[in-house]
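A.,

Following up on our hallway conversation. Structure tokens first:
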């Protein structure tokens, strides 16, 4: 029995989360609980996976690769009943690995080790366990003469049993034929009136077959998420794991306790990350970058040698040598070229900015294409919206846009041109042209003495 197939239980509602969303769809460290479990299973080498779905089954199914099989549990009658829905998937001659969809911290290594232990021990079922300081809520591992005899759920446990600190992780390896046989024998005779998967242990033991446990040293590996409190605890564990691994790979974290990075993010060596930084989704950060305090970067691609301070960047690409912030907001679909400077209180949206251009302060660039070596003066605004439609602004290479210029789109400022401060540009500016579009100044000498406030 060398191959193993996996069943993941993900039909439950997750009542204790007090959420409108099925529990396994909640995210931690950038992935849903269920995606974490699936990725660990795949990482362990099992590629035949079935997921039991029920509550919000369509939403859960959407998350799954088409090569993952699903079985619907219409009535949520317990974990044993859940596995029964996948009967036709359970080969007699395979080892069946079962996991809960709400325990995202189990690593591929741990899954590999229970599979190995199962094969080496000759057990009919092997249960992954851990010793917890506070075992409340978990099924307790009942042993006699140091041998597993059964699992008792919290709700059914006697006061003495509740003192036991070794708990069931919800990860098991079963021999397929024996799993099927024992599932047929479980009855909902307990305080929850549910068909407990955990009851199979005693049934298998009573058949005279060998049952055993594998205890993991690191209790974090089995942490399940049933409540918002446990969600925060799991996030903390992920944070430690992710941040340690980044530091191992050469990234400096000034304060790893206050740096929040999804497990999906990549960061290059010699990048320095300051406290309060949040890096999310598919973000990739190059090497030798400085990511200043409180920066929030989502699904963005940041090249090498980029400096970002106190800024928010979403779904954008930033080329090497760019300097961003403090207090810049780069909204989705921006391309920021090499060595571009985006300064303080600048908002950029759906725009491309070519290399060496400077957009230093208090500027709105929306729906614009800006060439190389331009300088946008303080207060420049791309007037891109007329209340109904949006239009683009084009500024070609080597332009100088004076302070407080309104660029009323659609409009183009051609190569090498200059707009005077305070201009409202409504017509295209030809190449190498100085455009001035503001009322002429009139000086009325002595007039101040006639003003109302003077009398
Ligand atoms: C379960 C175990 C418990 C173990 C703990 C580890 C049982 C009876 N108890 O308890 O021994 O210590 O996990 O975290 O198995 N699910 C279904 N269909 C159902 C019920 C549940 O698919 O009808 C799924 C849930 O979506 C969840 C998983 O099974 O992903 C576990 O269910 P949950 O209700 O969280 O079980 P626990 O009470 O935590
Ligand atoms: Ca649970």
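Then the amino acids I'd put at each of the 455 positions:
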């Amino acid at each position: 029995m060398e191959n193993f197939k996996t069943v993941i239980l993900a039909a439950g509602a997750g009542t204790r989360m007090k959420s409108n969303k099925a529990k396994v769809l909640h995210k931690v460290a950038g992935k849903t609980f269920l995606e974490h479990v699936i990725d660990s299973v795949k990482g362990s080498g099992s590629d035949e996976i079935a997921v039991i779905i029920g509550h919000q089954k369509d939403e859960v199914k959407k998350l799954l690769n088409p090569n993952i099989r699903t079985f619907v549990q219409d009535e949520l009658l317990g974990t044993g009943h859940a596995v029964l829905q996948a009967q036709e998937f359970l080969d007699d001659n395979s080892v069946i690995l079962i996991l809960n969809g709400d325990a995202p911290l189990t690593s591929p290594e741990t899954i590999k080790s229970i599979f190995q232990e199962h094969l080496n021990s000759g057990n009919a079922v092997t249960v992954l366990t851990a010793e917890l300081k506070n075992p409340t809520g978990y099924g307790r591992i009942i042993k006699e003469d140091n041998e597993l005899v059964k699992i008792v759920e919290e709700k059914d446990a006697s006061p003495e049993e509740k003192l036991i600190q070794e708990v069931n992780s919800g990860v098991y390896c079963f021999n397929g034929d024996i799993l099927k046989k024992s599932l047929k024998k479980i009855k909902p005779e307990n305080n929850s009136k549910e068909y407990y998967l955990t009851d199979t242990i005693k049934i298998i033991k009573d058949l005279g077959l060998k049952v055993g446990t594998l205890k993991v040293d690191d209790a974090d590996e089995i942490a399940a998420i049933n409540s918002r409190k446990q969600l925060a605890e799991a996030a903390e564990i992920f944070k430690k794991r992710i941040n340690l691994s980044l530091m191992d790979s050469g990234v400096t974290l000034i304060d790893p306790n206050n740096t929040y990075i999804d497990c999906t993010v990549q960061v290059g060596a010699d990048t320095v990350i300051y406290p309060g930084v949040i890096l999310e989704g598919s973000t990739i950060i190059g090497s030798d970058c400085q990511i200043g305090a409180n920066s929030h970067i989502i699904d963005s691609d940041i090249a090498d040698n980029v400096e970002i301070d106190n800024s928010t960047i979403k779904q954008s690409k930033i080329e090497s040598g760019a300097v961003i912030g403090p207090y810049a907001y780069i909204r989705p679909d921006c391309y920021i070229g090499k060595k571009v400077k985006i300064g303080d209180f600048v908002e950029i949206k759906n725009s491309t900015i070519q290399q060496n251009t400077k957009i230093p302060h208090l500027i709105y660039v929306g729906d614009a294409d800006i060439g190389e070596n331009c300088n946008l003066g303080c207060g420049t605004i791309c007037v891109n919206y007329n209340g109904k439609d949006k239009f683009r602004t084009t500024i070609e290479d080597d332009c100088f846009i004076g302070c407080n210029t309104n660029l009323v789109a659609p409009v183009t400022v051609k190569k090498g041109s200059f707009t005077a401060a305070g201009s409202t540009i409504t017509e295209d500016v030809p190449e190498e042209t100085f455009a001035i579009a503001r009322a002429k100044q009139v000086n009325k000498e002595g007039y101040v003495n006639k003003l109302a406030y003077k009398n």
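Residues 311 and 328 are 5 Å apart (CA to CA). Curious whether your intuition agrees with the design.

B.
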